[in-house]
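Quick start: read one record
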Amino acid sequence: MPEIIPITIEFKNGFTVRPAAVSAFGEVEFTDGTINLKPNQLQCEAYGYTYDPVSRSCIAFNYNSNLDSSFNNIDNSTKGMGNEVGTGVSNICVYGQDNIVNNRTRNSIIIGTNNEIANRVNNANVFGTLGEATADNSIVLGGNSGADALGKRQITIVMYGLQTTDSTTSNANLSNTVGDQYEIPENTAVYFQSETLAVRVGGSGAGNVGDFKAWVERGVVINKSGVLSIDRSRTSPADSGTTSGWQPINSVSGTNFIQTVKGSNNRTIEWTSTVRFTQIKTGVTL
């Protein structure tokens, strides 16, 4: 059975994405006609699939490991005592003790003790003690003692991306994957620092291709019993060319940290942000 099964479904009215493929584990990938991406809940359910809010995945069917055991633990390397590897995990390395890699994780690394990668989180790197990876393409350093709770003290590094062509304020996407955002755990405070670079790559407006601007934004986001608030400040250490009106702003929505960006009309601008979260998961009701 192949890991990815291409499918051909026409675009629904009002949608700019459509299903493109289903993995052997039942997860549906969408496409905008150019790149494959993860759909959000509205897009997923519009095409008749089931959205899993825990893993933020679109599901065509529930995978049964008894159908094909060869999809369990493919090309994995584990060294150490007490490590646990879930179903449908492939291309992972675990070196240490008592680490957990949950179901359907791919291309990830754990080095240390009592670390964990959540379901369907891919391309994650976790180091130290009791670090918890919940986002694709993330780097996590757990700085805990063995008696601490999972993720109590840790640093997580992620990236956001977007391309803009006008002056609309838009949400950038976690790992440049449409609809993905970084979730702040309940009763948790994070100090964040986002380093954002915008570069003009096209368009007919004033200025030139190659105009750029950079920003550093920092602050604290806190999740008090499911309600987020943010306190922040921003500086711009460098810019060149015509960049008036360009700006990133960090905000919150629901339980998510949001990176918004605003470009300018008739200018095609590529945005990328590296965001570092220094976390305290308090373990008490805030």
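The first strand starts at residue 4 and ends at 6.
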